[in-house]
Design a protein that fits this description.
Structural class: alpha+beta
Helix content: 55-70%
Shape: elongated
Distance between the termini: 35 Å
Number of helices: 22
Largest sheet: 5 strands, antiparallel
Length: 719
């Protein structure tokens, strides 16, 4: 099959390239923008069966005048002394002056005695931010205009003010995020170009992946946006960055797989067209199997209850599918036309390989497979033990720089009020059947709510102006509302207490940011418990079909899962242990699933396929392991270094979430490429021997076999 594909692509190279150009232009021109299907609202990704979502829906119906978001103006004295009566009056005048400015998309400007901290350290002005969606850029402008007005309106008063809240925090950290992701994009390109220049000593080979994958990126975003419109999918704002990394990571892998084999065939004496046909024939199955495993891993996300994962899976599957087609058609067509010029001006491809690092490593694996397997396995298990101490962290704000205006204002607010003042837990009392709530029911429930576990302060109840059957009470928790303690409190104790306190004939629904994250926590745990086993089973099935074996897929999948645990454990050791963080970001396990489990499987497939190929050439298991590491090691090393280096750059960002993501994925890819694929898997395969290929005996020597290729140089191992 792949030989026929190779002959067609090479024989019709110009037609293949022309078809790609026409298709790319048509897709890019006709597709909607990816921004049309993005959402920044975490709660929008939860199923409606969760209580926090039901509370949000009830709030939208019963309090339609409620703002999309809020900005909290925190006012204090410049000398640090308690506010006086004159100061409080001046804050009231400030609220009126700000309101009179008619700043677009703002409303409310509420303050008064209830907005003064018990210790009189601060007074707040609550400003509503109105928009059709939480990710409306007009909200950012509203905060900027609000801040610009504070200085003139407080001039000469002896008071200072800062604006806190999620939108204000985003304004403060927007440049940091943009700079971080820009650095990632630039670093990715520099790493790809620089590393491939070192490997092949050719600017053409170095630029080829960058140019092709950039075009594929545009095509992919168009297809993803079109699919999102067609199937009503909402995706996170992070998707653009994730697509960039997935395409450059996987795309570079597949292109390297082809270039290494193409160079090998040229050294064996093939002409440029035959060399590419044989390369597609030999590597096509590996690339297709690797892409199939990754696509399956991404599509398994459709089983997730969190909409973010469910919509992310098809988008990434589309990206990998496009890259697969590109790798088997456009890349072979281009390289077959370039021929030896793809390695210009280097002449190294003409010379037989010398003794290299990868050859020495391969010899070590083949000579002592038991020792290598045990050493690499013990390392992975030791790192995996860190998972036992894993704690999820939902407090994004704590990971941002703490010298910004929003961070300082939030700290002042939390010192003066309960810790949960910036993100109150909203409790809705309703009869559920339209019957009006009585004052007695509302007052009794408000009194009980104030005494509920973990509540530091309860705001006066609000009756819905449009629905007399609904009332709302804002509770300020004693704990940081984004902390694990607060999330556990809401999920386990507070909800139960509030449900029990609802008067007969009524029910209570608990919402707000803490409740949303409590439900995300539950959904996240459920999703991982479903996704990992199903993905492991399907990847094992693909490996079984590729290898015609029942034994090898078992230990390959176990290796991948062990690598996942080792990566998470290493991150726990560094960030919870060495740095003393309360936990690691709750999104990390799924990020590791995307980039370590899914993409790491590529390296396993490349290595195991080469081991099988060497076994078919008549080499005994130990010798096949040695030659496999020598030949496939440089490709795995180069691909792993590029992807790990790309993520490693994120550790330079001053945001904890990005630092954790950068470290975790970088170390995960390093473990995948250099520990699991280069040592653990080949050593274990050599140790198990012929049994690894049972019952299909995929290692049996083919008729007419013999050394069909000159040994692949391992000069990439010098990188």
């Amino acid at each position: 099959m792949f030989e026929r594909l190779g002959r067609f692509v090479v024989g019709k190279a110009w037609w293949v390239i022309g078809g790609w150009v026409v298709a790319a232009i048509a897709i890019i021109a006709a597709s909607p923008s990816l921004s049309d299907i993005t959402s920044a609202d975490q709660e929008s990704f939860l199923p409606s069966s969760y209580e926090s979502v039901q509370a949000t829906e009830l709030a939208g119906k019963s309090f339609p005048q409620a703002a999309t978001a809020t900005a909290t103006v925190v006012v204090k004295r410049g000398d640090g002394k308690p506010l006086t009566a004159a100061d409080e009056a001046r804050v009231g005048q400030l609220a009126a002056a700000l309101k009179a400015r008619n700043i677009p998309q703002t409303s409310g400007y509420l303050t008064g005695p209830q907005a003064v901290a018990p210790d009189k350290s601060v007074q707040v002005v609550t400003v509503g931010l109105d928009a059709d969606s939480p990710d409306d850029p007009g909200l950012l402008d509203a905060v900027r205009d609000l801040r610009a007005a504070l200085g003139p309106d407080l001039a000469g008063s002896g008071l200072t003010a800062g604006v806190a809240g999620d939108v204000a925090s985003f304004v403060d950290n927007e440049d940091t995020f943009n700079d971080a992701f820009a650095v990632v994009g630039v670093a990715t390109i520099i790493l790809i170009i620089g590393l491939i220049l070192i490997i092949f000593r050719s600017p053409i080979a170095a630029l080829l992946p960058v140019v092709v994958i950039s075009v594929v990126m545009s095509v992919t975003t168009g297809l993803v946006a079109a699919a999102g419109k067609a199937f009503d999918l909402n995706v996170s704002q992070d998707l653009q960055t994730i697509l960039l990394i997935v395409l450059f990571g996987i795309g570079t892998d597949y292109i390297l797989f082809l270039l290494f084999r193409y160079r090998e065939r040229l050294r064996a004496g093939d002409d440029k067209r035959t060399a590419m046909v044989v390369s597609v024939q030999r590597v096509g199955e590996v690339i297709t199997s690797a892409a199939g495993a990754v696509i399956v891993a991404f599509l398994v996300l459709l089983l997730a209850s969190l909409g973010f994962f469910g919509s992310l899976g098809p988008a990434l599957a589309i990206a990998v599918g496009v890259m697969l087609v590109t790798s088997l058609t456009l890349i072979p067509a281009l390289v077959s036309l370039l021929g030896r010029w793809v390695f210009w001006p280097s002449k190294a491809w003409q010379r037989p390989p010398k003794a290299t690092l990868s050859r020495r490593l391969g010899a070590a694996v083949g000579r002592r497979p038991a020792v290598v397997a045990a050493a690499s396995g013990v390392l992975l298990v030791a790192l995996a033990a860190g998972v036992l101490g894993y704690k999820a962290d939902y407090d994004f704000s704590a990971g941002f720089p703490q010298d910004t205006e929003s961070a300082r204002a939030a700290q002042d607010l939390q010192r003066g009020f309960a810790a949960g003042a910036l993100a109150p837990t909203e409790v809705y009392l309703t009869t559920g059947n339209g019957t009006p709530l009585t004052d007695q029911q509302v007052n009794d429930f408000a009194a009980a709510s104030a005494k509920a576990p973990g509540v530091g302060r309860a705001q006066p109840p609000e009756r819905s102006a449009t629905d007399p059957s609904v009332a709302r009470i804002s509770l300020l928790l004693n704990e940081n509302p984004m902390s694990n303690e607060a999330i556990t409190l809401v999920r386990d104790d507070l909800r139960d207490a509030l449900h029990a306190a609802a008067p007969p004939g009524t029910k209570a629904l608990v919402g707000g940011a803490t409740a949303i994250f409590a439900d995300i926590n539950s959904a996240n745990n459920r999703d991982l418990s479903v996704i990992l086993p199903v993905a492991a089973g399907l990847i094992a099935l693909i490996l079984g079909l590729l290898l015609r074996s029942l034994v090898a897929p078992v230990y390959l999948v176990v290796a991948v899962l062990l690598n996942f645990a080792a990566t998470l454990g290493a991150t726990v050791y560094v960030f919870q242990g060495l740095q003393g963080n309360p936990g690691v970001t709750f999104q990390l396990p799924i990020i590791l699933y995307l980039f370590v489990v899914a993409i790491g499987t590529d390296y396993n497939i490349l290595m195991i396929a080469r081991l099988r190929e060497e076994a078919r050439e008549g080499h005994e298991p130990h010798e096949a392991a040695a030659i496999g590491v020598e030949h496939a090691g440089p490709t795995v090393a180069a691909a792993g270094l590029i992807l790990a280096g790309t993520f490693g750059v994120l550790m330079l960002a001053p945001i904890s979430f990005l630092q954790q993501m950068g470290f975790a994925v970088a170390i995960g890819i390093v473990l995948s490429a250099f520990v699991m694929s280069m040592f653990f898997v080949p050593a274990l395969t050599g140790l198990i021997g012929h049994t690894a290929w049972w019952p299909g005996h995929g290692d049996e020597r083919r008729n007419g076999g013999g050394r069909h290729a000159a040994p692949e140089t391992a000069d990439a191992a010098q990188v």
